Each structure stands twice: as structure tokens, then as C-alpha cells.
Prior knowledge:
The complex is a heterodimer. Helix content of chain A is about 30%, strand content about 30%. Chain A is an alpha/beta fold. In chain B, helix 2 (about 15-35) runs antiparallel to helix 3.
Amino acid sequence: MKNIIEIKNLTKRYDSNFQLDISKLNIPSGRIIGLIGENGAGKTTLIKCLLNLVKVDKGSIKIFDKDIVSDEAIIKENIGIVLDGMFLPEVLTAKDVDSIMKDIYKSWDSSEFSRLVTDFQIPLNKKIKELSKGMRKKLEIASALSHNAKLLILDEATSGLDPVVRDEILDLLLKFVKDDEHSILLSTHITSELEYISDNIIFIDNGKIVLEDSRDNIMENYGLLKCDVDYLENIDKEDVIAYKKNKYDCHVLINNVSKIRRKYKDVIIDKITIQDLMVLMIKGERK
Amino acid sequence: MKGLIKKDILMAKSNLKVLMIIFIVFGLMSFSGNDNSNFAFIPSFLSIVIMMSTFSYDEFNKSNQFISTLPNGRKNYVLAKYISTLIVLLVSIFMTAILLIIFSLATNTMNFFEIINIIFGCIIGIIFVLCFFYPFIFKFGIEKSRIILFILAFGITGLGGILMKSNFSVTIPKALIDFFNNYYFAIFTVITLGLLFISYKISEAIYLKKEL
């Protein structure tokens, strides 16, 4: 499987002392990649680097095997984008969006846009500012899906939406990656979505990738061991990734569930959720 | 780029009602006062105010960032702003010219040459403002640029006042004045086009380097 995104030795430094550092990251095509991390971890910075919105201090980014700086226009022709709170001015209408975009993207498909807008029941002549948040988001997604993009980059595309609209959008995303040619990079705080649709997870913390694996591997190998606070002393240091003491018990993030299950017979090991994994890796204590 | 010009024109069009009301009010005021030259400047000035508002909308909706994610978006954004401003300016000037001709025919206050002079002055004046102002907008954003323009306008007015009070005068050779009188159309056209090109290049260089 070929890579749709290849990042090598990427460094982006800000005055605020924040630094994004990615030594190597390959994103295969035909997948939905979930990008997770707390606010300010570097997810949006990574997306901005991918889109050449900020100048990187070091390193190279290739998308579709082309350099994002020298082949920016060709690459962007094939990317559909939904970024949090960024779109065309809200005094425009869906009809205007179609009219503008067909002069921007060579492969803009007005009939596809029209179909999506009809499916989403977006009024064509209503100004964007008069649309509900869900409708606006649907319009942004319709626009991202109407120029035969091979890669979708979505930053908090479903945040603030009701579960029905969210479900509708997630189904649409699943349809988009029906073959190996299409991929999605999805940055979100709603981690349950990723458990539902993502193939791979990239976890960024403090500007660095701390976990990169397939969702299945994560769900299979990581677990949440629940024990008494006193029992924590009996667990070997190498078996504990992070732990959190609660009032009555202790939650321990573990890897290699089957091995741990054999080793510690009198404890409960629950399936991990991406939210638990994220919280424990960021806030959990280390042994 | 055509798409981005269309975007700006559509946004300007959404302010058309306000523009028309102001246009009519000032038209009537000038007509009743027999002072058409003042009226001529208002629509052209409004055209640039309307184009400034497109920058505000772009910043408010982070559309400038969104546009930079589109193919050639960042580069075309700058050129599209200059071209759409000139289009809006020319449309408003055209409307002004028609009304000036009607007024002058009705009131018999101006000849054709005077109308041409007024229109030319308006075009040059507005293009001078945009040449100066647009690089600031691309560098600092519309809000900060408005403050800068405000401070500069006060500064220039103050400086003018000081120079007038100090009886400052410059003696210009008669030959130069004659040359200017004979060729001012050509001189201003060349200077304006040159400034427009320089201003665009500065704005483009600023915006291509800018972190969004």
C-alpha cells in the first residue's frame, strides 16, 4: 500500500516555545486516520504544515509523492478541506459557493455539489450566516467532497453537531474511503467517532507523536486494569504505562493485555476506549 | 483566480443596497446644492470602503486562511483583491459619470472636459489610497490597518497644518508647471500604474511569507 502522506524530520517552532517535532510519519492511502491529542498538542499545527499555511523550520512533507512547497497547487487540487471555523464568508450562499468553487477547482463537479446540497437539505439561496451550525458544516463537507479529492483533511468537522447529523456525516466519510485511492485525516476531540470509523490512530502530545498504530491493534493490545490502590504496588513497573488513582480504586493503562491477564489473575481488565487511553497517557502518573 | 474575484464581487454586491442609498442621498444633496464635483468623489470612496469590508468578512470567517488551502489560493487572493477593487471602482465611476452627465445637462454647470477631469481625479485618488493601504492590510490585517490609516491621516493633516502655519513654500520652475499642465493625464497615469504594480508586488511578497 502506497503512502499518501510522508513526513520526514519535521520541525515547526513557535515563539511561545511550542515545537512540533515529527521525525517520521507515513500515512497509507485508503485509510481513515484519526488525529488525537489535547488542545494545543500540535494537531492543528500539523495540519497547517501539511497545507503549507505555515513555514516549517526543518524537514520535508510529501503528499501524493509530491513536495507540498514546490507542488502546492497540484496537491491542493486533490485535497478536500474542512477546518474548524474556516470557510468562505458567511454573506455568501450555497449557490455562490458552487459558482466560486467551479472557478477554483479544475475538477469541480457542480452536479455532485448540487446532489449533496439537496441530500443535506441545504437551502441554495440562504446566506451561510442564516444557516444552522449543522447546515454550515454540511455545506463545508459538500464543498470538500465535490471536486473528486483523493484526500480529505478534517479538523473538528463534527464538533458541535447533534448525533443524527454526526452519524450522517460519518457514514458519508465511510463511503468516501470505499477504495484504496481515497483517504481521510480526521482530527477530533470526539474520540468515540474514531473508534467507529478510523483505521489508524495518531496521538500527538506536546508536539510529538506518542502513539501511532492501527485502531484494531490499540483496542486489542491496550487495556484498562482496575485494581485497589494498594494492589498497584504488586504490578511491575514495566507493565504499567500510566496510572490514575481514584477515590476507591486505581486505573492502570497497560499494553499486551493477554500477557497481563495471565500474569495478574485477580484483577479486572476492561477494554480500553480511546478517551481513556488519551487521558491516561496525558494526565496519568508514571511508575 | 476568477473564482476569488467572483467571491469579492458577490460580497460587494451584498452591500449594494447600502451603496445605492448613500449614492442617491449624496446625489440629491449635490444636485440641490449645484455642487457635482463633491458628489463625484463619494461613490468612488464608497467603493473602496466596500472592498475594505470584504477584508473584514474574510478575517471574521477566517476565509483568508480557508482560501489559502485552495489551489493557488494564497497567491491569487492578493491579485484578486486588487482586480476586484478596480472592477468595483470602475463600476462606481461609470455610474458617477452617467449621473454627472445627466446633472450637467440638466443644470448646465459643467462641460465634458470638466467631467473627465473629475472622474480622472477620483480614479487616481482612490488608486493612490489603495496602493498605500493594501500592503498594510495584508501585513497587519484590516483592524490594525484601519488604526494605522487613522493615525497617518491625522499625522499628514497635522503636518500640512504645521507647514501652512510656518509659511512653507516651494518655488516650482514655470517650465515644470507648463509641462505638468500639458501632460498631467499621462504623468498621473504612469505614476498610478507604477504605484499599483509596486503596491501589488509588496502585498504579494508580504502575503506569501505570512503565517496563517
